[in-house]
């Protein structure tokens, strides 16, 4: 945590891509913060820059200009090895397409980050069992992704993001592939993660109902942060 009490701070973020010999400005001069345990939504039309901004905040992409700090550490000054360690241990990810390994069971998909991090067997089992029960998948743990519904697959993805006990979770269209009822379940789950576990949750979404559940909505348009609002409680 930095001196301001914010987990994440972005200052003057700009991201330029080269496409067909032309420069495309995806994010242009964005400043924003996120405190520990806050639930935020980045919203905007396709091409507004919200996913690019999310990726820079999560350390998956580096800005052309500007600074992102996480726990007061400037991400641009971290080595690639340090960035990998940060993403493995302090950041969780949830994607629209779930991102599960098809040959692994639900249990094995959730366990994998702990194996990579060198967590020992007994603690690994305890933590995997805990998060799978938390997302309501205790009886489906041996099923592979193709044997699970879209909602169940996304629950596995949320459990995988939680199992490392991260400080922040970044979710890109986490309800985009789900029907409205299942999407609401996942949205509730992410809100509970922020409120009860004090994990910062940042989502990029088109889902108005999900955006209505967060503490702050950051609206993107043409790469710029146009406005920040607080939605009415849902």
3D architecture notes:
- The structure is a single chain.
- It contains seven helices and ten strands.
- By secondary structure, it is α/β, with parallel strands linked by helices.
- It has one domain: P-loop containing nucleotide triphosphate hydrolases (Rossmann fold), CATH 3.40.50.300.
- Strands 6-7-8-3-9-10 form a six-stranded mixed β-sheet. Strands 2-1-4-5 form a four-stranded antiparallel β-sheet.
- β1 and β2 form a beta hairpin.
- α3 packs across α4, α3 packs parallel to α5 and α5 packs parallel to α6.
- The longest helix is centred in the C-terminal third of the chain and has 18 residues.
- The chain is globular, with a radius of gyration of 17 Å.
- The chain starts with 5 loop residues before the first strand and ends in a 5-residue tail after the last strand.
- The mean pLDDT is 91.
List the helices and strands and how they pair.
Layout (H helix, E strand, L loop, with lengths): L5 E14 L2 E14 L3 E5 L6 H8 L7 E6 L2 E2 L5 H11 E5 L10 H11 L4 H14 L15 H13 L5 E5 L7 H18 L2 E5 L3 H4 L4 E6 L2 E6 L5
Parallel strand pairs: 3-8, 3-9, 6-7, 7-8
Antiparallel strand pairs: 1-2, 1-4, 4-5, 9-10
Task: Tell me the CATH architecture.
Answer: 3-Layer(aba) Sandwich
Poorly predicted spans: none
Shape verdict: globular
Give the DSSP E fraction (strand runs of 2 or more residues): 25-35%
Q: Which homologous superfamily in CATH is the superfamily? A: P-loop containing nucleotide triphosphate hydrolases
Number of strands: 10
CATH class call:
Alpha Beta
* Rg of Cα set: 17 Å
Q: How is the main sheet built?
A: 6 strands, mixed
- CATH T-level fold name: Rossmann fold
Structural class: alpha/beta
What is the count of helical runs? Answer: 7
